[in-house]
Specification:
By secondary structure, the chain is α+β, with helices and mostly antiparallel strands. The chain is globular. The N terminus is likely disordered. The chain has two helices and eleven strands, in the order H-E-E-E-E-E-H-E-E-E-E-E-E. The strands form three sheets. Strands 1, 2, 3, 4 and 5 form a five-stranded antiparallel sheet that branches. It has a four-stranded antiparallel sheet with strand order 6-9-10-11.
Length: about 180
């Protein structure tokens, strides 16, 4: 009996530490808006995600140049299709801690492959050629052929496929999006 008691104490202590650590980790991520959730481990198990600390689902950076880091995250809708797939994927940005998030991108009619391929990362400040500037299509009115950004931007992508950038536009006092590749 004495052996059993001494065995359970370390197990209970370790289990308590794991639960507490999980609670602390959960507090680091912003609370999703109502009707949205962070992806489950089963939905994001692709090996290519191992190269990124946030599994290409969360990124932090000073995207608007205010000296404070903002958080951007990919969230899945809680509503599911008859196939069990989330109905929508959203890219949300929290401008400051405690603020409601901005919706940068919303994709509805999600296919299972979309869940496996989407990601978010940071696009470094500097000069970048856009998709239309690279000749994928003719630039539309107001669509830039090149992008010069002063602060890091948000890179939203489909793994081994297309990508877009969301960047802070000081003249517009808003985030703008542009296709980077097709």
């Amino acid at each position: 009996m004495r052996y059993r008691q001494s065995f359970h104490f370390p197990v209970i202590l370790i289990a308590t530490m794991i639960v507490c650590a999980a609670d602390v980790a959960a507090e680091v991520l912003p609370v999703p808006p109502q009707g949205w959730r962070y992806p489950t481990t089963a939905e994001i198990g692709q090996p290519w995600r191992d190269a990124h600390e946030g599994r290409y689902l969360v990124a932090r950076g000073d995207f608007d140049g205010d000296g404070e880091d903002e958080t951007v995250a990919i969230l899945f809708s809680e509503e599911r299709s008859p196939r069990g797939v989330p109905m929508s994927i959203g890219l949300f940005l929290w401008p400051d801690a405690g603020d409601d998030p901005l919706t940068l991108h919303l994709q509805e009619g999600v296919l299972p492959i979309d869940l496996q391929r989407i990601g978010v990362d940071i696009l470094a400040a500097g000069d970048h050629v856009t998709a239309c500037g690279a000749g994928f299509w003719t630039c539309a009115t107001g669509e830039p052929a090149a992008l010069r950004i002063r602060h890091p931007a948000i890179l939203y992508f489909h793994h081994e496929s297309r990508s877009g950038a969301y960047f802070w536009s000081a003249p517009d006092s808003a985030y703008r999006g542009v296709a980077i590749s097709d």
